[in-house]
Each structure stands twice: as C-alpha cells, then as structure tokens.
Automatic annotation (TrEMBL):
<keyword id="KW-0299">Galactose metabolism</keyword>
<feature type="region of interest" description="Disordered">
    <location>
        <begin position="35"/>
        <end position="59"/>
    </location>
</feature>
<feature type="domain" description="Galactose-1-phosphate uridyl transferase N-terminal">
    <location>
        <begin position="146"/>
        <end position="228"/>
    </location>
</feature>
<dbReference type="InterPro" id="IPR001937">
    <property type="entry name" value="GalP_UDPtransf1"/>
</dbReference>
<keyword id="KW-0548">Nucleotidyltransferase</keyword>
<feature type="domain" description="Galactose-1-phosphate uridyl transferase C-terminal">
    <location>
        <begin position="256"/>
        <end position="384"/>
    </location>
</feature>
<feature type="compositionally biased region" description="Basic and acidic residues">
    <location>
        <begin position="45"/>
        <end position="54"/>
    </location>
</feature>
<dbReference type="Pfam" id="PF02744">
    <property type="entry name" value="GalP_UDP_tr_C"/>
</dbReference>
<dbReference type="Pfam" id="PF01087">
    <property type="entry name" value="GalP_UDP_transf"/>
</dbReference>
<dbReference type="InterPro" id="IPR005850">
    <property type="entry name" value="GalP_Utransf_C"/>
</dbReference>
<keyword id="KW-0119">Carbohydrate metabolism</keyword>
<comment type="similarity">
    <text>Belongs to the galactose-1-phosphate uridylyltransferase type 1 family.</text>
</comment>
<keyword id="KW-0479">Metal-binding</keyword>
<keyword id="KW-0862">Zinc</keyword>
<dbReference type="InterPro" id="IPR005849">
    <property type="entry name" value="GalP_Utransf_N"/>
</dbReference>
<dbReference type="GO" id="GO:0008108">
    <property type="term" value="F:UDP-glucose:hexose-1-phosphate uridylyltransferase activity"/>
</dbReference>
<protein>
    <recommendedName>
        <fullName>Galactose-1-phosphate uridylyltransferase</fullName>
        <ecNumber>2.7.7.12</ecNumber>
    </recommendedName>
</protein>
Amino acid sequence: MTSAAFPPAEPTTLGAGVVKRPTRLADGRELIYFDDPDTTLGPDRAVDAREVDPRPATATMRQDVLTGDWVSVAAARQNRAFLPPAELDPLAPQTPTNPSEIPSRYDVAVFENKSPSFGPALAVATGDAPAAADPPRGLDDLDALGLGRTRSSVGRCEVVCFSPEHAGSFGTQSVTRARTVIEAWADRTAALSALPGIEQVFPFENRGEAIGVTLHHPHGQIYSYPYITPRTQRLLASIEGTSPDLFARILEFEQQGPRVVLRGEHWTAFVPFAARWPIELHVLPHRQVADFTGLTDAERDELAPFYLRLLRGVDALYDTPTPYIAAWHQAPVNRGRDTVRLNLQLTSPRRAADKLKYLAGSEAAMGAWIGDVPPETAAERLRAAVEGIEL
C-alpha cells in the first residue's frame, strides 16, 4: 500500500497566511505540510511510494501502584534512528538514496511518529485510526489503584519538523518560520484534543545530545496523552489549594521582581522564584489562555520574535549551543480550562561552559531539588544575553 490510496485533503489557509496541506504516508500515518506565507514551494506534493512495514501495535501502559503513575512500555522505540549522517536524515525530504519520512520539500511538516510511545492498536487501513485493544475507561479508571493493572497506551505522538535542513533548532529559524510553527502547534492542538481518549496535548523540543537527542534535524514533538500528566495533576492540586487566579498572581509577582528576562505587550519571560535548573526560563501570556488554540493573532505574532530572542539569548551564554528542553505546558482537554494557563518552561542542565547538572540521589531518587545557581543570578545573565540579540 502507498499513500496513493489516501487522496490528499484540500488545503486550508490558517492564521498569518499559513497554508495547511494534509496527506498520508505509505502506511496510512498522517502527514501535514504547513507552508510559510511567503513560501517558494508549489502546491503539489510527491506521493510516498515506499514499501514500508506495518505500523507497530500500540504500546501497553503499566501502573506503578506506589505512585499511581502510568508507565508506557514502548519496545518499538528501540528501533528508531540514532544520530544518522546527513545523507540518511529521516526528517529530510526524500531523495533517490534517502527513503525518508517526508516525500517532498517542505517549510514545516508534521507527521505521526513511526515508533510512538502512544498510538493506535493496528496499522491504519483507512483514514480512521482503529480502536485500541484495551483502552482506558476514563480518568476514574486510571485513578484507581491496583497491582498488575495495564491499559493500551492510547494517544498520538507527532514529529514537528521546523525546517528541511539537516541541522539547527527552533532558535535558528526565521521569524516567519517561527510564526508558521506556532500556527502548526495551534492547529495540531485543536485536532489532537478532539481525538477520542485524549486528555492532554504537549508540544516540546529537545535540543542537544546532552538531553538525549537522537536526530540533529531541527524538530520538536507533540505528545497526546490518555491521562493528565503527573506534573499537571500537581498543578491542579496547587490551584485548588490556593486560588483560581494562581497564574495571574505568579505573573504579577514575577513582573515586580528582579527575575524578569524579557517583557512584551502580550508575554513575559522570567526565571522562576524556585528554579530547579541552572538555566530555567518560564514564559507566560498576560491573560488566561488554556492552550495555543486560544491565542489571538496579535499574541502569536509577538510570540515568534519573542521566543526566538529568548532561545538565541540562551545560546549566547556560552561559546557552544546549550542543550535544553522547551516544554509548552497546556491545560488538560477537559479540566482546568479556566485556571491552567499556557506556559513555556525551558530548562537546561548546563551550569557552566563545560559542566552539566546531573540528577543524582536527592533529585532523582527523592525529588528533593538543590539549586546550583541563585535564580536572580541566572536572570541577570540571561537578561544581558537577550538584550544583545537582534533579529
């Protein structure tokens, strides 16, 4: 079977003039092109004519009865590419010698991960994903505790390619390209949130081998979970234990303090009061927004250069690029929509030019953190770095 069996859907125009062009790969996985408003690409896209293996069965989640956490056991991920050479980059456009995942030249491309941690149970034979073998029976089912409990890891994992080039990161993109990616995040958040069984959608970027990156290609990912993640469950409990306007209070507190790194009309970036990591940046919109879908055009327009300045400032701290995790926390699909605010939490273990913070006994085993750098000192250094960035 090839993608010729799945006729491409009609293109649609999104915000900022970004054009969305959905299609499918040879095994039925979704592939969506997002064209820049000033794209030089034509409207046609090549067919994925590869002969490919069937998609792996959905992973199985196991419950840790000591914590209630669900752990997805996804053995198919062992087969994923590991630091391939540029000529075999699986995220580059296909060539006669590189049967990659994306058949055409592109600006931004999003596709279902070939070896996902969360996904459908069987290979897709039509445009609809099949039912999983043993899906969760709702949040109450997942909250119940018991020995030996398992469920299918229902969900979706997508790869977001920021560029067709082999090397780079989000921070190396143009303002126009960054704006296209933001539009893609919003579009995919809406689509993934509407899938049956999805409780939370999480866009993120891993950057650098020190973080565990296995591809140098500039890309991020989007995970769609069948549960509310442990971090967000703790956040919901904190909101319940304080006040519904907790994020507004945090923003006001930080804006009046010494840890603000960059402030715009719609966004503020700051080092949090109780930062865990040597480099830790949080970004909040100035109003309550549950996820990317709720951002106005003006907020998205400002975010593109704002975010690029922050990322380039982080890289300007040292002579070599800094590894980081850029995590966009969004409200769960069905809970906390009026209280949980979209926010970025960027963290890096880099505590000096040639030193990393490793999670040892206290942090890794007990979750009891010890900060290496005072947040005010980190904010001062980041502020100076960001002020020197010109786009």
